[in-house]
Design a protein that fits this description.
Blueprint lengths: L2 E6 L5 H15 L3 E6 L13 E7 L11 H7 L8 E8 L8 H12 L3 E2 L4 E4 L4 H19 L1
Cofactor: FMN
InterPro entries: Flav_short, Flavodoxin, Flavodoxin/NO_synth, Flavodoxin_CS, Flavoprotein-like_sf
Function: Low-potential electron donor to a number of redox enzymes.
Amino acid sequence: MTLAKIVYASMTGNTEEIADIVAEALENLGLEVEINECTQVDASDFEDADLCIVATYTYDEGQLPDEIMDFYDDLGELDLSGKIFGVCGSGDTFYDFYCKAIDDFEERFLKTGAKKGASSVKVDLAAEEEDIQNLEAFAKELVESLNG
């Protein structure tokens, strides 16, 4: 069975909810899904997955959350050629660098040789109905990239 691994960082619960929405959508599309908080896993765990997903929030003025920094650094050391990745998460449009951590992770994944399977999804604070639809479409696009 195709394995998707989702790693998330969440301070308020918004990004955890985003990760859960993506996980449920992927399960509904027939994938096996493992979801973990970023301090509970190593970046190298992505080597066992077919689909690699990071869900993160952006802290303050565009910073990566402290708790995901080690994971981010370790990700840069991996060769994930042949893997499909996706990035999603939350931010606050109040800040100038809205959801910058998502862009940072996308760049980091590309340096690993992984292939971007779907456009990143950025959610302003908590997921609303339109965001849920976008996250479900994100999951569908990732699965189509696996099969493509």
